[in-house]
Design goal:
The protein is mainly alpha-helical. It folds into two domains: 72 residues; 101 residues. Helix content is 81%, strand content 0%. The radius of gyration is 51 Å and the shape is rod-shaped. About 11% of the residues have low confidence.
Length: 209
């Protein structure tokens, strides 16, 4: 009876032991599952990289949008201020141009040759008054157009204390204003001298002989 039981157990062990073909199939299934897991891992890694790239680009977008919105907003305010200052400056220059044109017209209207002997004194007084008015207007307004003249001459632009496009002209030296004053006054002095000579000549020719 004992021998029969041992033989029966040995037969059961032989039936439970997988064959070589079954082992090979199990190995193939395990390899297939491992390959599938690796492919899924690669897909997960790629998806992770894609999401990280999207997050980085979104951060760049938000940061760049905020940066440029701030810069453009401040620039618009600056442009508005400069536009207002430029318009005010343009109105000022147009006014100066009209004043200078009026004084130039009055100066060009002085004609000593047309003065008679009796009207000479009165015409001289009137003409000298015109010259004085022109000189006063020039001295008062020329400083306001000096910044533009300096820029046209190639002088460097220096921003004034008010942040305007037109710099302050308070730093000009005495020699600068002296040259400008002489440049404008000299022709007037010559004109006055000529008028005085004409007046004396009329007095001499009109004197009784």
């Amino acid at each position: 009876m004992s021998d029969f039981q041992d033989t029966h157990d040995e037969l059961l062990d032989l039936e439970e032991t997988p064959s070589a073909e079954e082992l090979q199939n199990q190995v193939k299934r395990a390899q297939s599952e491992l390959l599938e897991l690796r492919q899924r891992q690669d897909l997960i890694e790629k998806e992770k990289l894609r999401l990280e790239e999207l997050t980085r680009r979104q951060d760049d977008l938000e940061r760049g949008r905020n940066e440029m919105a701030d810069k453009l907003g401040r620039s618009i305010i600056l442009v508005q201020r400069e536009t207002e200052e430029t318009q005010r400056r343009l109105e000022q220059l147009n006014n100066i141009q009209d004043i200078f044109a009026e004084h130039l017209h009055n100066l060009e209207g002085i004609d000593p040759k047309s003065w008679g002997g009796r009207d000479l004194s009165r015409e001289l007084t009137r003409s000298l008054g015109i010259v004085d008015e022109a000189r006063s207007a020039y001295a008062r307004l020329h400083a306001k157009i000096t910044p533009i003249s300096n820029q046209d001459d190639g002088m460097p632009y220096e921003e004034g204390s008010g942040g305007s496009l037109f710099p302050d002209i308070g730093d000009q030296g005495f020699s600068h204003w002296l040259r400008n004053g002489l440049a404008f006054t000299l022709p007037l002095l010559v004109l006055g001298t000529i008028a005085l000579i004409v007046w004396i000549w009329h007095l001499m020719t009109a004197a009784p002989r």
